[in-house]
Amino acid sequence: MSTTAPGELTASAVISLIESGAYPRDVVLTIARGFLPLEQEDLVAVLAYLGALDDDEISATARTALADVPSRIVAGFAANEDVEAVHLERLLGIASDPLVLEALIRNRAVSDAAVAALAARAEARVQEVIVINHARILRAPEILDALLANPTLAPEARRRALETREEFFDKKARLQQEEEEPEVVELPLEPILDLLEKARELEHDGAAAPTPSLTESEREKMKASVVWARLAYMSISEKVQLAFKGDRMLRMLLVRERVKLIASAVMRNPRLTDQEIESIAGMRNVDEEVLRMIGTRRDWISKYNLIVILCRNPKAPVGVVLPLINRLTLRDLKGLKDDKGVSQVVRETAKRIYLSRTQKTG
Predict the structure, then answer these.
(1) pLDDT over threshold 80, residue 217
(2) Hey, what's the torsion of the CAs at 159, 160, 161, 165, to 10 degrees?
(3) Is 320 within 8 Å of 296 (Cβ atoms)?
């Protein structure tokens, strides 16, 4: 046993003694109950350390004691940038109080890696705090990746995360490519021969290739680019081939074409990623047929996040959405039944299923 006087005890000193085996287990268990003459902030650090131990009894005891510490004390500790990062990150690993977690996320002494680890498991309220912390995300984009990989990510947090990725990363990459020739991969055209045949029929009938449906700001940015100049003079057949072979920028542009053949070719592009499919599923300026294609592809619709996005898109065909509603969790059903942005039949179906499930479990 150490002869360190109580007045000299600090969190780091106590933790060091515990790690060295200077205290027997029954003493460590007593410490885990909060019975130690320490300043309250030092006590928080020790309890956070004990709360992360593999010993279930000690860990559970320490977490209970930590929950009994006044919230303002723990939150103050979490916000203090002078506290050693190791203590803060231990607390981040075991804390459940959203106010404490918010303070830790905002604390610059906490590493980006620790926040990324939290993002991968955070609950809805904490997800919102992470996704609006643009300073951290710009410094460490892996936080955004971890958040988007969170299996419990709420629809609103997902929307914000995708918007953040678009605003700070994808848009920048596109702007850098605007004056460059788009990437077109040589692929066999067999998968789109039916589309090309229909395109030639349209061209034979005198149909022109329309410009993509863009917002005013997008149109202004695209006017000066090589891509826009090329598309303006392309036939429907040429656009179908480009949609099937083109890179991400071209896919995201051509999927909004008013000619279904062109948008359909995008959906057959073998390089289409899950992230792009989610983005397209949430678009309100694509043809309904595109959303129908997404909603009927088993490999795509097996992903829960995609189901949520489609159900919340008012442009998605009701016939596609209704069978998917029954696959939503109670939380997402609750949000959908109150969502004034979707059709009444979708809201009523979500409400009926929600009430049916809650009555069964009540």
Answers:
(1) no
(2) 100
(3) yes
